[in-house]
Design goal:
Distance between the termini: 29 Å
CATH topology of the largest domain: Rossmann fold
Order of helices and strands: EHEHEHEHEHEHEHEHEHHEHHE
Length: 368
């Protein structure tokens, strides 16, 4: 594992606000309920910190990952824009995915009476592919990496008149990814209320699994609204060592693409940071961490033993915390600021084990 403080962190930077109606939209969806925040005192004692709290996204609007928050809001915005253009009849919504985003797009397309065409790269587990098909989507496997799957989906949408609903941005394609990021804000607004119920104003440190950076962007937007607040939350990205595009970009001082390898953290196996997320990451992120598959597996086992069965992406923050909890943060924050016996760590567990079946070892127990 490596840990890199962000030398470009700007304590004066303030994020743009998120529309206030996003949470109300989600509350109006069938099956909506806040996901649980789990207090794990045994892990806190093991790490030597005040508290370890896990935001468990393993059951979100009937799917085993947080992605439905962004997909549902973005699809609603897309279809409202379409209706203003007085188009009629079903459309085809298009996306590339490592699994969870595509399944969410397929689910809400079906529920709203539209079609979905989903493109998946090499390395997505057959069970995850089948879960997308079970939502009624047409699916195409791209014999290449995630970035190439995104390019293929983009070309298909342009050629066929489909509507691309992609959770990463590039120059000329930022409106829909922006809606997806806004959709993720519900997670953090729920977290505010749950922390308040525990008497905690905000996390001492928030660890966020990171692929292209859209969820990280949402976290930074939320926690960088008040730059003058004392002791602002320390926000850390967590990536697989095989696909650390955010850490590489932090090191370079500009967005760079990386060649990705195989990792059980399939949902984080992305080689290029979202152009929409990068400005917030560059100015608002405190540090970028990477973890190995073995570390994520061990962390998933520990979480399962503590009543939080998650997939490897969801376990990555705990893997990072095991090292970060012992490292001073003075390089990334004000001198002397470090993780201590009073720090509250919040880990965003982005997926349940059902989101990535067979990626976890049998020692963890049967997967559902």
């Amino acid at each position: 594992m490596t840990w890199l403080p962000n030398p470009a962190r700007d304590p004066s930077w303030t994020s743009s606000p998120v529309p206030r109606d996003v949470l109300e939209f989600h509350r109006g969806l069938a099956g909506y309920a806040p996901t649980r925040l789990v207090d794990l005192p045994a892990l806190a004692a093991d790490l030597g910190v005040g508290r370890v709290l896990v935001k468990d996204e393993s059951h979100r609007l009937g799917l085993p990952a947080f992605k439905s928050l962004g997909a549902s809001w973005a699809i609603d915005r897309v279809l409202r824009a379409r209706d203003r253009g007085e188009r009629e009849g079903p459309v085809t919504l298009v996306a590339a995915t490592d699994g969870n985003h595509g399944r969410a797009v397929a689910r809400f397309s079906r529920l709203l009476g539209h079609r979905a065409r989903i493109f998946v790269p090499d390395g997505v587990h057959p069970a995850a592919v089948q879960a997308i098909r079970d939502e009624g989507a047409d699916l195409t496997t791209v014999p290449a990496d995630y970035d190439e799957a995104v390019r293929t989906a983009t070309g298909y949408a342009a050629d066929t008149g489909g509507i691309l609903v992609q959770d990463t941005a590039w120059h000329g394609y930022e409106e829909v990814p922006g809606w997806i990021v806004a959709g993720y804000s519900t997670l953090f607004r729920e977290l505010d209320d749950q922390l308040a119920d525990l008497g905690v104003e905000q996390p001492g440190m928030l660890l966020v699994p990171t692929g292209v950076g859209s969820l990280l962007h949402a976290a930074l937007t939320h926690y960088r609204k008040h730059p003058t607040r004392p002791d602002p939350a320390v926000v850390v990205s967590v990536e697989p060592v095989e696909a650390a595009c955010v850490q590489a970009s932090i090191a370079a001082g500009q967005p760079v693409s990386v060649v990705t390898g195989h990792t059980i953290m399939a949902g984080l196996n992305c080689g290029t940071v979202s152009s929409l997320a990068w400005p917030s990451i560059q100015r608002g992120l405190d540090a970028a961490a990477t973890v190995t598959d073995d570390q994520a597996t061990s962390a998933a086992r520990d979480l399962a033993e503590n009543g939080v069965p998650v997939g490897p992406c969801g376990a990555a923050p705990l893997a990072a915390a095991r090292t970060l909890a012992t490292r001073p943060l003075s390089e990334a924050r004000a001198p002397g600021h470090q993780v201590s016996a009073s720090t509250t760590l919040v880990l965003i567990a982005t997926e349940g084990e059902a989101a990535n079946p067979a990626a976890m070892p049998s020692a963890i127990g049967p997967l559902t």
